[in-house]
Amino acid sequence: EPEVTQTPSHQVTQMGQEVILRCVPISNHLYFYWYRQILGQKVEFLVSFYNNEISEKSEIFDDQFSVERPDGSNFTLKIRSTKLEDSAMYFCASSEGTSGRDEQFFGPGTRLTVL
Amino acid sequence: AQSVAQPEDQVNVAEGNPLTVKCTYSVSGNPYLFWYVQYPNRGLQFLLKYITGDNLVKGSYGFEAEFNKSQTSFHLKKPSALVSDSALYFCAVRDQKVDTGRRALTFGSGTRLQVQP
Predict the structure, then answer these.
(1) pLDDT tens-digit series, residues B65-76
(2) Which of A34, A36, A28 has the alpha carbon at shortest distance from A55?
(3) Are the beta carbons of B43 and A109 separated by less than 8 Å?
């Protein structure tokens, strides 16, 4: 069964450093997403990406964040200068994209720890 | 704005008994509703969704959910719980009324289901 994969599973970084979280969405999917879950809190939407551009973003997704699809398979989330409050589990997801009713398929997550 | 409430942080049920995990939602239009399950150190796994039509939706692993428009609820149910069902369950909503290019799901805070042997 196809699945979304994410690397690394755990990333530890120093405050102020740049991090790149990587995702490989399901191959025939057209919409890609990033969500995050701060420990003990809700899963929160960050951004969606379609046709090589951001289609929607939340208030959390400020100028410190960027997304990119550098090739035909990877989808990345970059945080330019990490803050302590960026520590969270980051989930990548993808959906077929043919309709807004499509379910989103999530990867296992990357746990980001900012020290 | 769209929102979801899961009023119970934890639900405890004995193996073999029926289980219900509650979810209520708020949207301006009609909802798309989803249930996901999260096992330890794993991502969110899709269980089932309500789009339109029959109010009772059947999903993976014997789970089902009942859509009730008047009560704005979408409770997750299973007739006979298994110990292996113990996990964190998330309800999510998307308002059908918004631009179809906007796909963000809004999640509830999650309910931990504990099934005792």
Answers:
(1) 999 999 999 999
(2) A34
(3) yes
